[in-house]
Structures are given as C-alpha cells and as structure tokens.
Write a structure and sequence with these properties.
- The complex is a heterodimer of chains A (112) and B (114).
- Chain A is mostly beta strands.
- Chain A contains no helices and eleven strands.
- The termini of chain A are far apart.
- Chain B contains no helices and eleven strands.
- In chain B, strands 2, 4, 5, 6, 9, 10 and 11 form a seven-stranded mixed beta sheet that branches.
- Chain B is globular and about 40 Å long.
- The chains are: A mainly beta (112), B mainly beta (114).
- At the A-B interface, strand 5 and strand 10 of A face strand 4, strand 5 and strand 9 of B.
C-alpha cells in the first residue's frame, strides 16, 4: 500500500464551482500535513499546511481526520488560475519525522 | 534570495554514464531531499538527509547514491545511468525543527538517459 494515496482525477469543473479532494495516509504517527500545488513542469509550491482543527485560507479549506487518516482540500468559487495539480504531503512519523512523502497528485482543470 | 539551487537544469546521458546532480540551499535548513517525478505522477522520495552527516533511503533509492557534503549541499549521484532513470529530479530543503514547516524546492533537473 502506498503511504499517501490520492484520486488522480482529472477533475474538470466550471469556473465558480466548489471542488473537494481527499487524500489518505497510512502512517498513523504522521504529524505534519500539507497541500502543495504544482503547475505544469514547475516545482511544487506550498498551498497550505493542514492543522488538527482544520484551517482556511481565503477560498481554500483544509481538514484533517486523524481517526480515519485522511486529509481534504476544499476549493470554493474556483478560478481559472486554480487549474493545476494538487499534491497531498505527509511526514513520516516519530522515527522518521523528517521524511516527507508526496501523493501522486490530483489534476484539476477549471473551464470557463 | 537564491533559496534552493539545482544544477544542471538539463542533462542528456548515455546508458552507463555517471553523473552527479548538485543541490545547495542558503536558508540554513537542516533537512534536504531528493525526489524524482515521472510524467503524470507525483514526486517519489529517493533519499533524504535529516541533518548534516546523515542520509536515509526513501521510496526509490536503487541506482542512486547521495552525499550530504555540509549543511548547505546535498548531491545525488547516478553511477551507471539507465533509461528508467529518465525523469525530472527535484531537490528540496526544510527546517526540521518545527512541525508543519514548508519544504522549498529547486527548479528541477530534467534528465534524459538514452
């Protein structure tokens, strides 16, 4: 089983729609959770960290469910510029806290 | 600010050749990473270094070696390149000492093995 799993998509939604992605992770000791965004042929960049109580940054909301070992990302009022690949990222847990594992990414395409 | 710098940006190798990918960061980060990304896929961890003087295997270490030369530099070596190692390689660094700290990436090295 992969350590971090995501639905690869693609998600193709109209501008203004709300879209949600989930990601599951296998290491129950993981402590750090992130969503990264990657544009075509570019390096990944941090979209937001995910905190235990959930957090929001403008149109983006991230949630963590430790019991079920998944994190989610909700994008409201989607813009054309949101088209990208969204990568779920989790750290390795107590004995390998520095280890950072990426999911395979979910492709999102926003259409006019 | 330079951040994370990778060299070279592009490279073509013949099967069996060796090369070293260089990575340097100027953010005084403890942890550094090497990933590879194949078309349509996410990043897979090759090796990482939690701190100067330590290295650990990631998800796909076979065919690679690494050196954490000092706190700034973390190099990735392909001893005998194979076509299966054609990929985009990303180096990253992170401040290990705080939870939920961001990893910063270099711009990538696009490697083709023919």
């Amino acid at each position: 089983r992969k350590e971090v799993e995501q639905d690869p998509g693609p998600f193709n939604v109209p501008e203004g729609a709300t879209v949600a992605f989930n990601c599951t992770y296998s290491n129950s000791a993981s402590q750090s959770f992130f969503w990264y965004r990657q544009d075509c042929r570019k390096e990944p960049k941090l979209l937001m960290s995910v905190y235990s109580s959930g957090n929001e940054d403008g149109r983006f909301t991230a949630q963590l469910n430790r019991a079920s070992q998944y994190i989610s990302l909700l994008i409201r009022d989607s813009k054309l510029s949101d088209s990208a690949t969204y990568l779920c990222v989790v750290n390795g847990g107590h004995s390998s806290a520095s280890k950072i594992i990426f999911g395979s990414g979910t492709r999102l395409s926003i259409r006019p | 600010n330079a951040g994370v710098t990778q060299t070279p940006k592009f490279q073509v190798l013949k099967t069996g050749q060796s090369m070293t990918l260089q990575c340097a960061q100027d953010m005084n980060h403890n942890s550094m990473y090497w990933y590879r990304q194949d078309p349509g896929m996410g990043l897979r961890l090759i090796y990482y270094s939690a701190s100067e003087g330590t290295t650990d295997k990631g998800e796909v270490p076979n065919g690679y070696n690494v050196s954490r030369l000092n706190k700034r530099e973390f190099s990735l070596r392909l001893e005998s390149a194979a076509p299966s190692q054609t990929s985009v390689y990303f180096c990253a660094s992170r401040d290990r000492d705080r939870v939920n700290t961001e990893a910063f990436f270099g711009q990538g090295t696009r490697l083709t093995v023919v």
